[in-house]
Amino acid sequence: MRYPLLEIESKKIEENAKRLIDECHDKGIQIAGVTKVFSGNKKIVKAIVDAGIDILADSRIENLKSFKDYKIPKMLIRIPMKSQIRDLVKYTDIALVSEIEIVKEINKFALKANKKYKVILMVDIGDLREGIFFENKDEIHSAIQEISKMKYVELYGLGTNLTCYGGIIPTSDNLSILVELKKEIEKKFGKQIKFISGGNSETIPLMRTGNMPEGINQLRLGASIALGIGLYDMPLENLYQDTVKLKSEIIEIKQKPSKPIGEISVDAFGNKPHFEDKGIRKRAICAIGKQDVNPEHLIPIDENIQILGASSDHLLLDTTDSCVDYKIGDTLEFKLTYGGLLSAMTSKYIYKRII
Ligand SMILES: *Cc1c(COP(=O)(O)O)cnc(C)c1O
């Protein structure tokens, strides 16, 4: 076996997707399965598609392009770059949009491809990432009007995203803004809007307590499928959290002081480190570093191990309190946060094993 190794239990991920699909379909909610954390890994994505998601969603066109054999509508969830519209129209069917200039470009390429392309107009209800700010009604209305004139673009829905930048929590109040907006637009333009794409995994607790406003009928779910987590990264009931495990090999074990000797300058990343003097401790070094994953995103499965820090290629751990007598060549195992999984999947130096 080669290390570092990321083990991914695709059966558990598929099961998470199945359970979320059942739960949401029961409530008349469509699921876009968001696969961006898996860095285009086709085996895992296939398992998620097989679970029965309605739409395959990713933030990178390169990933969606590599999923072209999966017969399922595909959606780009990062608002598109003007330079990628040709590929967008070729490899995907739906996009989240916020700039009319981009939609015009989509219409242009969709005409050339003779394909009716769907867009979800993003409305920013307070998190301050993508979308037209909800108070700018004129801008929203004129965008809708422009889109309705386009022959090759269909306004598929209104959407919003929360928690990702501003950390704003989805509530019945802020999501109702979208529902009201939809009613207003339908009245003004005499046209039905099929979907309200109301958010991500962080919206699940609101849905489960029955407080998600009526009318939100699409969720874009990533973290809940991948790691069984939702708001505040808290575990969601009825889902697996132990879907992934990172194994890293020990390359040094030594007794050393806990406080470096000499005058302290800055570390490899320009930070001035601080150390507590705990006397002589047993320290291990694992062959993985910040180039692969930020140590703050790793959680040792042996709870008596403490992560001390990392440089680009070395992870430093205090193993003094562990009951296990680790040896050179042994591996240490870690759980990963969402951010940890994202970078571990992206690192070409981490081997992946899908089981
Ligand atoms: C990442 C992302 C999602 C999925 O979020 P999770 O918290 O992983 O469920 C949904 N929508 C957009 C626009 C995203 O960028």
CATH A-level architecture of the largest domain = Alpha-Beta Barrel
Query: Which regions contain 5 or more consecutive residues with pLDDT less than 50?
Result: none
Query: What is the oligomeric state here?
Result: single chain
Order of helices and strands: EHEHEHEHEHEEHEHEHEHEEEEEEHE
Task: Please name the fourth-level CATH homologous superfamily of the largest domain.
Answer: Alanine racemase
What is the class of the largest domain in the CATH system?
Answer: Alpha Beta
Counting H and I runs of at least 4 residues, what is the number of helices?
10
**Helix/strand structural class:** alpha/beta
GO cellular component, one term: cytosol
Organism: Caloramator mitchellensis
Protein name: Alanine racemase N-terminal domain-containing protein
Keywords: Isomerase, Pyridoxal phosphate
Task: Please provide a written account of the structure.
Helices cover 29% and strands 25% of the residues. The protein folds into two domains: 10-233, Alanine racemase (TIM Barrel, Alpha-Beta Barrel), CATH 3.20.20.10; 244-354, Beta Barrel (Lyase, Ornithine Decarboxylase, Chain A, domain 1), CATH 2.40.37. It has 355 residues and is an alpha/beta fold. The two termini are 14 Å apart. Strand 2 (30-34), helix 2 (42-51) and strand 3 form a beta-alpha-beta unit. The strands form two sheets. Strands 2, 3, 4, 5, 6, 7, 8, 9 and 10 form a nine-stranded parallel β-sheet that branches. The model has no long low-confidence stretch (mean pLDDT 96). Helix 1 runs parallel beside helix 2. Bound molecules: pyridoxal-5'-phosphate. Pyridoxal-5'-phosphate binds next to strand 10 and helix 9.
